[in-house]
Structure formats: structure tokens, C-alpha cells
């Protein structure tokens, strides 16, 4: 099956950088229009530069003739640039849906497992959403408003609830020799659903080929990974500490729906595999700042 022509919004951000490193050059050059807000040279023929929030006409022009819009644009805490807020996550998603309504492109929105908040057990896409921080609340409102607008506009829209991505997460991605991890009374450090950067790129590639996606889809490898085990596998020192107030002990995404569309093997969730995927791309994805 031929890869469809798509527009990737926010391609200079962390996930966009992963896709540009992993997806085959012939796919990137012939089927993908990459977007950034930064100036681009005329030699970069498959790049466009504009602000989706203030230049909606340019967004529509970029989306015209494209089968899908993959919206990676967004703002996360601690990486806000001047003049941006977490509410931009909502506005950027709505801009993508409006462009989809005018061009016929379907829309895939990068959301987050943060919408689930602090809940035990396996979290399916039908689970209740209880975000505990401003980022999770902004992503949930983004999902709700974008889904409502898409339904009213006849746009096919899927919100991708992405788990922790090895290498651009809070431990591998932000490691310093002084890093500390909460250790709970049962001896565990925080456990999360993870996915390696190469696995993520493959999953997103596969989803571009699926014509009918559900409104919401969890994106992760099966199971959970202890953050302490992940640092141990990487040979990186960490210091345990008493659990801090509000620390979430575990987030485990149910990946049943994803595995029907793009299976992720259990061994891809092992600390060793996650570290290996990160290390293979570390020079390219390390220390990346999010950018719309």
C-alpha cells in the first residue's frame, strides 16, 4: 500500500524529529510536507513555514491535496516559548480540524496519557479521564473540543494518547547525575507505559495507512516499565527518595485497540530495548526543545 501524502504540523518538535530520523527518506521527500514556524530555505522543497494560529489560510493551503494532517504542534510545561500557553494545545488542534474540514484531510492529534491522571489498573480508551495537572487538563479539553468540532464538520479525527517515549521522557530525556526517583513502600519506582522512539515511528507510519481510526487511541508498548529499571538498563545513576505528594505510582495503557492496527511486541517494552532504541537515535533526538 502506498504511503499517503500528509502534512506534519510541528515537525521541529521532539516527535517530529524522531519521525524525520526514522521514516525512510523516499517517504519523507515524496509524500510528507513538514511544517515549522521557523524560516526555511527554498532548497527545502518539502517544508513550509507559518503560524497555524495566525495564518489559517496558509495552513489550509498546505493541507490541500493531503490525505491526512498529523498535528504534533503543542506546548508542554517547562518548554513554553514567549507568548505561548498550554491553551495553545487546544487552539492548534482546532486549527488542524478546521483545515481538515476545508480540504477533506483526516486529522490525527498528538494527545497524552496525562489525560488519565492518577488511576490504578489497565486504562482503556473508554476509561474515565481525571487529569491531575494543567497539561493533562489542556490535552483533555483539546480532545473534547476537537472531537466535537470534527463531528460537526464531518472530519475524521483521532486523538493519540501517547505514553512515555524513551529518550524524551522525564528520566532518560532529562537525566543528570543528581536525578532522584520516588520509591514507594512496595519498593517500586514510578511505573509507566512506555514506547521506544523507533517503535513510535513505526506505529505512526502504520496508522497513516489505516483509513478509519477510532476517535481515541492509546499509543504505547504493552505493560509498564519502572523508571528506576530504565535508568539501571542505561547505566545511569539515580538516588531514591520518599514519595513526593501527588506522585502517580503507575499509569498503564490498554493497547488492545492499537495492537489490532499496529502490533507492538512485548519485548519492545523491555528496559533494554527502550534504551537501545533511544541510544540509536540519541545524537539526533537528545536535548530537543518542543516547537510549534
TrEMBL record:
Domain NAD-dependent epimerase/dehydratase, residue spans: 6-167
Species: Ruegeria pomeroyi
GO MF term list: oxidoreductase activity
InterPro entries in alphabetical order: Epimerase_deHydtase (IPR001509), NAD(P)-bd_dom_sf (IPR036291)
Protein's UniProt keywords contain NADP: no
Protein name as catalogued: NAD(P)-dependent oxidoreductase
One Pfam family hit: Epimerase
Domain of life: Bacteria
SUPFAM superfamilies xrefs: NAD(P)-binding Rossmann-fold domains (SSF51735)
Keyword NAD tagged: yes
Family as reported in the entry's similarity comment: Belongs to the NAD(P)-dependent epimerase/dehydratase family.
Key words of the record: NAD, Oxidoreductase
Amino acid at each position: 500500500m502506498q504511503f499517503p501524502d500528509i502534512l506534519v504540523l510541528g515537525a521541529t518538535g521532539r516527535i517530529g524529529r524522531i519521525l524525520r530520523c526514522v521514516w525512510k527518506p523516499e517517504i519523507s521527500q515524496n509524500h510528507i510536507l513538514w511544517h515549522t514556524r521557523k524560516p526555511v530555505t527554498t532548497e527545502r522543497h518539502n517544508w513550509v513555514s507559518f503560524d497555524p494560529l495566525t495564518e489559517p489560510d496558509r495552513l489550509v493551503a498546505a493541507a490541500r491535496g493531503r490525505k491526512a494532517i498529523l498535528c504534533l504542534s503543542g506546548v508542554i510545561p517547562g518548554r513554553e516559548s514567549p507568548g505561548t500557553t498550554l491553551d495553545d494545545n487546544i487552539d492548534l488542534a482546532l486549527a488542524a480540524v478546521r483545515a481538515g474540514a476545508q480540504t477533506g484531510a483526516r486529522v490525527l492529534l498528538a494527545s497524552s496519557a496525562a489525560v488519565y491522571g492518577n488511576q490504578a489498573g489497565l486504562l482503556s480508551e473508554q476509561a474515565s479521564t481525571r487529569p491531575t495537572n494543567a497539561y493533562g487538563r489542556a490535552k483533555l479539553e483539546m480532545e473534547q473540543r476537537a472531537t466535537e468540532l470534527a463531528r460537526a464538520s464531518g472530519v475524521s479525527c483521532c486523538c493519540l494518547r501517547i505514553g512515555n517515549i524513551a529518550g524524551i521522557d522525564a528520566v532518560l530525556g532529562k537525566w543528570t547525575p543528581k536525578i532522584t526517583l520516588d520509591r514507594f513502600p512496595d519498593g517500586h519506582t514510578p511505573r509507566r507505559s512506555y514506547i521506544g522512539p523507533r517503535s513510535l515511528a513505526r506505529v505512526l507510519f502504520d496508522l497513516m495507512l489505516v483509513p478509519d481510526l477510532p476517535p481515541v487511541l492509546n499509543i504505547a508498548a504493552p505493560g509498564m516499565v519502572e523508571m528506576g529499571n530504565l535508568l539501571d538498563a542505561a547505566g545511569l545513576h539515580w538516588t531514591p527518595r520518599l514519595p513526593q505528594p501527588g506522585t502517580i505510582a503507575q499509569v498503564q495503557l490498554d493497547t488492545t485497540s492499537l495492537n489490532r492496527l499496529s502490533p507492538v511486541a512485548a519485548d519492545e517494552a523491555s528496559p533494554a530495548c527502550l534504551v537501545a532504541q533511544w541510544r540509536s537515535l540519541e545524537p539526533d533526538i537528545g536535548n530537543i526543545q518542543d516547537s510549534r
